Amino acid sequence: MTFDDHPELAGYEPLERPLRGRRMLIATRIVVVVGVVALILPGVLISVSIATTTATNTCAVYVQRYEPDATSSSARFELTGPLGPGWQCYALNTEGDPSFVAPLGLIPSTPHRFPADSPLDS
């Protein structure tokens, strides 16, 4: 490539220093990171809130159906639950001791009847 091919570059001398200073570059990066976090964080918080509410309500229905003598219910997200990672439902007795009722999965849904061959539907 020569200047004859691109006459608009005739007389152009590249600068030895960058166009933007170091502080401007750092400020731009900070603004971009804050902007990305501001776009993603509300969606994550809303998703966690909805999953928590759904798991709590579904667990209350399961405890009422499968453990009628329990005093309350507890839905917890566990990485090492009885049936793998996800939301787990526990029934609490009068002393507050938990007993496992049902797995709710990674994304809890509304209550449904368990299959007839399930140990929970006996």
| β-sheet strand percentage | 15-25%
Main sheet makeup: 3 strands, antiparallel
Please tell me what the overall shape is.
Answer: rod-shaped
Number of helices: 1
Strands of the largest sheet, in order across it?
Answer: 1-2-3
Please write the string of helix (H) and strand (E) elements.
Answer: HEEE
> Span between N and C termini?
81 Å
Q: What is the arithmetic mean of pLDDT? A: 86
* Rg (C-alpha, Å): 29 Å
- Number of strand elements: 3
Helix content: 25-40%
Oligomer: single chain
Coarse structural class: alpha+beta
Query: Which residue ranges are poorly predicted, with pLDDT under 50 across at least 5 consecutive positions?
Result: none
Key traits:
1 helix, 18% strand, alpha+beta, three-stranded antiparallel beta sheet, 122 residues, 3 strands
Question: Can you characterise this structure?
Answer:
The chain is of the alpha+beta class. It is 37% helix and 18% strand. The protein is built from one helix and three strands. The chain has one helix at residues 22-66; strands at residues 72-78, 86-92, 98-105. The protein has a three-stranded antiparallel sheet with strand order 1-2-3, covered by helices on one side. It is rod-shaped and about 90 Å long. The mean pLDDT is 86.
